[in-house]
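re: that chain from earlier
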Amino acid sequence: MAVKRRRRAAEPEGPWHNPRLLNGIANALFGVAAVLSLWLAWQAATRSSAFPLHLLVVNGELHSVDHDDLAAALSRGVPGNFFGADLAALQARLEQVPWVRRAEVRRLWPDRLSARIEEHIPFARWGDGALVNTYGEVFEARTSAPLPLFAGPPGTSLEVALRYAEFRERLAPVGLELTHVTLSPRYAWQIKVNTAASRGLTLELGRDLLKDPLVARLGRFVEAYPRTLARLDRRLDYVDLRYPNGFALRAPDLVGDDAHRAPGRRVEG
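^ sequence. v structure.
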């Protein structure tokens, strides 16, 4: 007796009959719905009157920031509620206040904002009216504090500040007070110091060279200073240190009227 085999029915084809694909689409739709729900909830929270701001707290050690300037920056208030307040805009507004170096604003649940302010600490004067802080950054402010004067091309304030610290350390053993540091557009260095007999003595250092670096020239001067210039009981106004084995100096009253005709005298280091 012959047995007939039953033919298997053909499985349906197409994307709508692919279980794996359908599960992936379903998961993606659930994800989109969840993100959309969160976004709608956030939008509702930022516009709701149920989360008003009641207090803005300013923290930080404020010595130079003018309270009136700070109040003026905050006089426009903070638009929005606890969730909708634009913290970046408020931070930018605070950082425009003179003497404010950086402001950090954050939310404090349930109804306040906290602004922490870091002041500029003046380190030197820059050019005609600006100041340099302890990070070597230039900022616009006024102070009556006695500070050294820096000058240089734009963007070189940090380099000048670092050189100032280096030069001051080199000059410390002979008690010379460093008052000015100038970097020319050609990157030549010039400094001014106060001595016992001369105020504003200019030291011409020149450019920093690999074979004869600035610290080496200044070191030779410091080594020779106690037995040369320190013994001169007269005013000096200019010393040129761009010599490999010594330096040249100019003293207005060293040789009387001849000083107006002679460029200076050479002193061996």
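The longest strand covers residues 100-108.
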